[in-house]
Structure formats: structure tokens, C-alpha cells
Write a sequence for this structure.
């Protein structure tokens, strides 16, 4: 009787050990996937933020150059024309 209990207990322990191994494998896959998601989210953030920063740095001088060229061709500022239209002149 005691020997049967011992065998049953050993069998249960082996089953428990096998289940723990499967759980550990699943946890490791989940951890790798979460790390992958973190990296992808960081790349997304960089892809969005870096162009915005470059735009803030390079677009104003470019626009100023275009406005200067427009003033040279037309003879007046485009903003003055818009202001005149707004004032009804």
C-alpha cells in the first residue's frame, strides 16, 4: 500500500515537472515576443519623431527662401497680399 502511494506520488511529481517545463517554454516565448514588440515600438517612434525633428529644423529656412524668391518675383510679400485681402483692400 505504501509502495503504491510512493509510485503515485512519483508519477504526479513527474507530470508536474513536465507541465512546469511546458510553462517555462511558453513564458520564454512570450518574453521574447514582448522584447520584439518593444523594439518594434521603439522603431515606430523613431520613424515618426525623427522626420518631425528634421522638418522643424530644415523647413523654416526653406520656406523663408521660397518667400524671399516670391517677394523678388512679385514685388511684395505674400503675407501682405493675404492681409490686404483680409482687410478688404
Amino acid at each position: 500500500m505504501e509502495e503504491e502511494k510512493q509510485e503515485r506520488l512519483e508519477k504526479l511529481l513527474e507530470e508536474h515537472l513536465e507541465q512546469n517545463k511546458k510553462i517555462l517554454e511558453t513564458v520564454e516565448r512570450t518574453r521574447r515576443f514582448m522584447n520584439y514588440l518593444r523594439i518594434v515600438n521603439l522603431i515606430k517612434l523613431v520613424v515618426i519623431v525623427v522626420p518631425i525633428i528634421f522638418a522643424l529644423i530644415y523647413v523654416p529656412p526653406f520656406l523663408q527662401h521660397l518667400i524671399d524668391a516670391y517677394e523678388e518675383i512679385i514685388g511684395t510679400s505674400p503675407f501682405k497680399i493675404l492681409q490686404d485681402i483680409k482687410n478688404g483692400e
